[in-house]
């Protein structure tokens, strides 16, 4: 007998909850905000909207399903199952935070604060959750297959991201490495820079677009479902020992970018989750390219 689907509600701690954890009481939190020219009233209203949205989505889960919740900070310790339907209740960025821990499970994005969030990934309202969850679990459910980027190190460490992966120094130093295509006999260029960014079409509205605009790049930005990635080297430094000829490019399916570390330490993290990063040391190699896993975002 196959297991009934499990609805996993992904959420994050609200600003109000963070203030209470830091200051202890509502009154102390209100005083802290007022001393900085802010009112706690709007913070409380957003907290209540989020809590109500979570309650509405939980109530919409079919009775025969199982149900679980996971907070953003615990995603790296939560075990998702193949029968899960993931309901992300919050902001667009929370979908990206969850995506790296999934392996093809359908995702329903629920916007808790319409008008404040862009709604690119959290496309739906809590009132629609019941129909969306059933549709996501059905064989004919329709979804966008959003391209993801992956980094695979030579020691088998692997990292997935929906928006972008960054490789660079763990501070404000300069990273040294060799960079080139991941192909037999391909030449690699020694470089010194503040890091390398490899991004997807979903990330093309954020950090990737910022670099693309700054460079006035002629490369075409990918759409979220395009099987293409763009990559940029940040602030490459020319010197007698380091070059700047490989500072931007495009990767299609089956193509890769190879980086060999020539510094004491380089960190690799995705979608801004610095607390869940890979750490590479001198001589290690990492390959970046399109992941075989995509994010199934329910329409």
Instruction: Count the DSSP helices.
Output: 6
Instruction: Work out the helicity level.
Output: 10-25%
Strand composition percent: 25-35%
The biggest sheet amounts to: 6 strands, mixed
Sequence stretches where pLDDT stays below 50 over 5 or more residues: none
The SSE order reads EHHHEEHEHEEEEEEEHEEEEEEE
Strand order of the largest sheet: 2-1-3-4-18-5
Fold blueprint:
Blueprint: E1 6-11, H1 15-23, H2 26-34, H3 40-60, E2 66-71, E3 84-90, H4 92-99, E4 106-111, H5 129-137, E5 143-146, E6 149-153, E7 158-161, E8 164-168, E9 175-181, E10 189-193, E11 195-199, H6 207-215, E12 228-234, E13 248-252, E14 256-261, E15 266-270, E16 278-280, E17 285-290, E18 295-298
Parallel strand pairs: 1-2, 1-3, 3-4, 4-18
Antiparallel strand pairs: 5-18, 6-7, 6-17, 8-11, 8-15, 9-10, 9-14, 11-12, 12-13, 14-17, 15-16
Helix pairs in contact: 1-2, 3-5
InterPro entries: ATP-NAD_kinase_N (IPR017438), ATP-NAD_kinase_PpnK-typ_C (IPR017437), NAD/diacylglycerol_kinase_sf (IPR016064)
Protein name: Inorganic polyphosphate kinase
Organism: Streptomyces gelaticus
